[in-house]
Amino acid sequence: SEYAQEDTSMEITVETYLAHPDKYKLIDVREEYEFEEGSPAGIHFSIKDIQSPELISMYDHPLLICSSGKQSLFVAQYLARHYGLNQIKSLKGGIRALIPVQS
Questions:
Q1: Residue of 58, 80, 57, 67 lying closest to 8 (CA atoms)
Q2: Burial class for 28, CB neighbours closer than 10 Å (0-12, 13-18, 19+)
Q3: Which residues sit opposite 89 in a β-bridge?
Q4: What pTM value is reported for the model?
Q5: CA-derived radius of gyration, the chain
């Protein structure tokens, strides 16, 4: 099925992000408590907000992040499929991939 296939075109690597960090708007899609414990993103968009894409669709280059990159990819794919928001990307490997590079 189309759902089983991972669309890697919706993913941005950590290297690509770090080459142009100002281009992207980081948006955290983890649970609220995870976001509040600390996040590289300034914006929280939980799975509960998935029916309200207008909360993040106004940004030019929204880049969704989560711990591993799986949930953010799911959300990006959902928003593309259901709302045609193909500009929304997911950070491959998530925060775990980003933190070691930044520190």
A1: 80
A2: buried
A3: 63
A4: 0.88
A5: 13
Q: Which residue has the tokens 């070691």?
A: 100
Q: Which token pair is 15?
A: 């290297």
Contacts of 53 (CB under 8 A, 6+ apart): 79, 83, 85
pLDDT, one tens digit per residue, over 40-89 is 999 999 989 999 999 999 999 999 999 999 999 999 999 999 999 999 99
Supply 86's token pair: 């193909």
- Nearest CA to 93 out of 81, 82, 85, 101 is that of 101
DSSP state letter for 13: -
